[in-house]
Structures are given as structure tokens and as C-alpha cells.
Design goal:
With about 450 residues, the chain is an alpha/beta fold. The chain is built from eleven helices and 20 strands. The termini are close together. InterPro entries: GH, GH30_C, Glyco_hydro_30, Glyco_hydro_30_TIM-barrel, Glyco_hydro_b.
């Protein structure tokens, strides 16, 4: 960490952001988590430079973590590696010195669309059968597919990491169409209670295997019905499920939090208000989960103003380049307490998944012909500019956003008192700027198309 009088600096630059050429092989950007010479903190002076005002006395939300998903696609690719290569890969995710330093991981309850397997849940039955008492419940498929073992390995490498879980679909026998794809939960409290029991058993099964689940979302993207595991769930039904699930958790001494919604900014306010305006719904809900595929991050500030006691989490979105790094800054400036990328590693044939579109490059890409070989894309570095330095328990602090024509930023104060400023230059020219904070200033220059992290006491 820095001394009192200097600012430590790291830079990463974008290179062909979001371009599929990253599936073809690695290339080296100008800056890749490159540690620069320390910058002096000096007395303030008169300046015409773009100025960022950092005010640590103005505190906002507290950070839970930054991380990625551990869906079956990534695990399927990992299992093609030999044990030593697999260990190195997991270290890259966990290590704060040489890797990403991630401390928050999303796992799936049953399969998602990013899987190499036939779709499954933990209670799949022959057509026409039901199992309200969950006598056939089992996470054995997760064990057989080495999902449990991989998450255990990850927790060993990052013992402070937190895990949260999301389901893509209830078991087919609970659904209106008898299928994991599309449909909705059958009407009737007996189905709501059966689903609550199913989720409670899943959380208990993970815990029995040494995987404590700090939180779960009640349904991934509840407004989407599509041709992979999905389930439409109205706010009224989700409220009923949250109340039933909270009761299940309390009866079985589970402290796992419940996060509602788990879908896009555009529909967020309309979805969460009927749940949180109800006293029982409000009491059952611990947080609000959001995705960024439609709408503006500013809705998070609106939700925060409406329900200030309910933390907000950005649970799914992958981003590219300095535009992506700036979008992350906007999440945090609008009260997100976390950020999770979606899908950690695809192979060089863009495999193996069952999503209905073509994904862009992930932070890491595996060589499909030589599975022990993988490479980082520039996104690895750009997300690490946040995840390596912003600690759990940090507070976002006051700073003026800046401008797209110069630099934008977001600032945090870590539990040990260090200040972290992440600044983004989306322009094609280098941008000099100065930072004023508590009677001191420093002057820095951010290269074109790059992100800088500045750390000081």
C-alpha cells in the first residue's frame, strides 16, 4: 500500500473491445495491470486541468464484492485441463497480486443456458408425476459434473469469497407447460410451497458440501420465457414465493438472503414496487438484483431513494473496453453494491453453450485444440482495475463524475482507510487531469483508451 505522500498507480488499456478475434489467440495491449511510478501528493495549486473532487466524508453504499459466474460452461471447459492447469486458472480468479482477486461468485441452481449438458433440475420426474415432499430431490448431477468440486476448489483459493445462487427454472412438473423451457409456475399455494422447499433443500445441500450460500435470487430473468431453462414469474407470485421461502429458511436456521427481480433496469421499478410496498413482502426481501441488457443504471438510484434499506446488486452483465469500465463506474455511482460478469471462460470455438445468440469474448479463452492453454483478453485487466483494489466493506465516496470527452471516475474508501479512484479515458487522446482530496492534490495523465486505478492513504 502507498505511503502518506504518494499515489500508487496501475494502468490497463483496451484493445479491439468485444471483437471475436480474441477467440483466435492472445495479443498484448499497451498496458495490462501495469504498475506505474508513484505520483506525489502535493499542496493544492491553481490549474486549468480537468479536476476530480474526491470527498471521503460523503459516503454511499457499502461494497459486497466483484466477481463472475461459475456456470457449467466454464466448468466443462476447466475439466478438459490437467489438474495443474486447472489450479493455475482458479488462482487467476482468486489471486489479488497476479490475478483478478474476485470475492463474489454466482452459481446456478440446476442448469442455465450456459451448459454443455442436457438441461436438468434437482427434481426431474417422468411426465405426469409429482413430488411435493421432495423425496426425489438430489444434487447428484452437480456432483457428477464436478460443479461442487470446482466451487470447493475456488473457495479454497479464495476463502473470503461469497457465493450467491440463481435458478433458471423450477422442475418441469411444477410448470404450466411441463417443460424447463418457457412456461410459468403452476397456480396454487401448494406449488409455491413446493418450490420454496426445493430451493431450501438446494441451499442445504450446497452447505453440506462446504459451500455456504450468502444469498439467492428467486428466479433468473422472471420476465423472460425462451427456449432454454426459463420461467415467467409475476411480481405477485415472486412476493408469495419470497414469503414462503423466508419461512422455510427461518424454520431450518438458514441465513441465506433473498434477492428479488434479477432482471433488466428497464422493468425494475415496476417489478419491485408491488413486492416492497407490501409489508410482508418487504420483510421477506433482503436485496434487489439487476441485469443490464435494457434500460439505464440510473433506475438503481431511483430504487435506492424509494427503498434505501434494501441493497442493490448488479448480478449479471459482461462488458468490454473502456466503455464497459465506464458502465461499471455508472453501476457503482448508482448504488450497486456488487458486480458480477456472466460466463468466465469459453473455448476458441465459442463453446460450449446453449444460449440462442453468439456470445462475445469472455475474460479468459481456452484453446479448443490445446485445452491446457488459455489466454486473457483485455477485459481481464480492465475488470481487475476494480476487483484487485476495491475491498469488501469499502464504501463508495463522493466524487464528480467527469465527462466522456475527458475522464470519468468512481471513488471508494477501503476498510483500512485507503482511497481507491478508478478513472476511465474513453477518448483517442491522452488526458491529463488532477485530483483534489482533503487538502492535497495529485496530477496524472491517462493514456488514450485506458483505465487507471489510483490508490493512496
Amino acid at each position: 500500500m502507498s505511503t502518506l505522500h504518494t499515489v500508487e498507480t496501475w494502468l490497463s488499456s483496451e484493445l479491439a473491445p468485444g471483437n471475436n478475434r480474441w477467440f483466435e489467440g492472445p495479443a498484448v495491449p499497451d498496458y495490462a495491470l501495469s504498475n506505474q511510478s508513484a505520483i506525489a501528493l502535493t499542496a493544492p495549486s491553481v490549474s486549468d486541468l480537468t479536476t476530480i473532487l474526491v470527498t471521503p466524508g460523503h459516503t454511499y453504499q457499502q461494497m459486497l464484492g466483484i466477481g463472475t459466474s461459475v456456470e457449467e460452461t466454464t466448468i466443462h471447459n476447466l475439466l478438459k485441463m490437467d489438474p495443474a492447469s486447472r489450479d493455475r486458472f482458479i488462482q487467476q480468479l482468486a489471486d489479488k497480486e497476479n490475478g483478478l482477486g474476485f470475492n463474489l461468485f454466482r452459481i446456478t441452481i440446476g442448469t442455465s443456458d450456459f451448459t454443455a449438458q442436457p438441461f436438468y433440475t434437482y427434481n426431474d420426474l417422468p411426465e405426469g408425476e409429482t413430488d411435493f415432499e421432495m423425496e426425489h430431490f438430489s444434487i447428484q448431477k452437480d456432483i457428477d459434473l464436478s460443479i461442487i468440486e470446482t466451487v470447493q476448489q475456488l473457495l479454497k483459493a479464495a476463502p473470503d469469497a461469497r457465493i450467491f445462487a440463481s435458478p433458471w427454472s423450477p422442475p418441469a412438473w411444477m410448470k404450466t407447460n411441463g417443460d424447463l423451457k418457457r412456461g410459468s409456475l403452476k397456480e396454487g399455494i401448494e406449488y409455491t410451497e413446493a418450490l420454496a422447499r426445493y430451493y431450501r433443500l438446494a441451499i442445504q445441500a450446497f452447505e453440506e458440501h462446504g459451500i455456504p450460500v450468502c444469498a439467492m435470487t428467486l428466479q433468473n430473468e422472471p420476465l423472460l420465457e425462451t427456449d432454454y431453462p426459463s420461467c415467467y414469474m409475476s411480481p405477485e407470485r415472486q412476493q408469495e414465493l419470497a414469503i414462503a421461502l423466508k419461512r422455510e429458511f427461518e424454520e431450518h436456521n438458514l441465513t441465506t438472503e433473498l434477492w428479488i427481480f434479477d432482471h433488466n433496469f428497464a422493468d425494475a421499478m415496476g417489478y419491485v414496487t408491488p413486492i416492497l410496498n407490501d409489508s410482508e413482502g418487504y420483510a421477506a426481501v433482503d436485496g434487489i438484483a439487476l441485469h443490464d441488457y435494457d434500460g439505464s443504471p440510473e433506475v438503481m438510484s431511483e430504487i435506492h431513494a424509494a427503498y434505501p434499506e434494501k441493497p442493490i446488486y448488479l448480478t449479471e452483465r459482461s462488458l468490454w473496453g473502456t466503455a464497459g469500465a465506464d458502465r461499471m463506474a455508472q453501476y457503482f455511482r448508482n448504488y450497486a453494491c456488487s458486480y458480477n460478469a456472466w460466463v468466465t471462460m469459453l473455448d476458441s470455438r465459442i463453446g460450449t453453450h446453449q444460449w440462442l445468440g453468439q456470445p462475445g469474448p469472455t475474460m479468459l479463452v481456452q484453446d479448443a485444440d490445446e485445452p491446457n492453454r488459455s489466454w486473457r483478453t483485455p477485459e481481464f485487466n480492465l475488470i481487475a482495475q476494480y476487483s484487485r483494489f476495491v475491498e469488501r466493506g469499502a464504501y463508495r465516496i463522493g466524487s464528480n463524475y467527469g465527462s466522456r470527452e475527458t475522464v470519468t471516475n468512481v471513488a471508494f474508501r477501503n476498510p483500512d482507510g485507503t482511497i481507491v479512484l478508478v478513472a476511465i479515458n474513453r477518448t483517442a487522446e491522452e488526458q491529463p487531469f488532477r485530483v483534489l482530496c482533503e487538502g492535497k492534490q495529485f496530477v496524472a495523465t491517462l493514456p488514450a483508451g485506458s483505465v487507471g486505478t489510483y490508490l493512496w492513504k
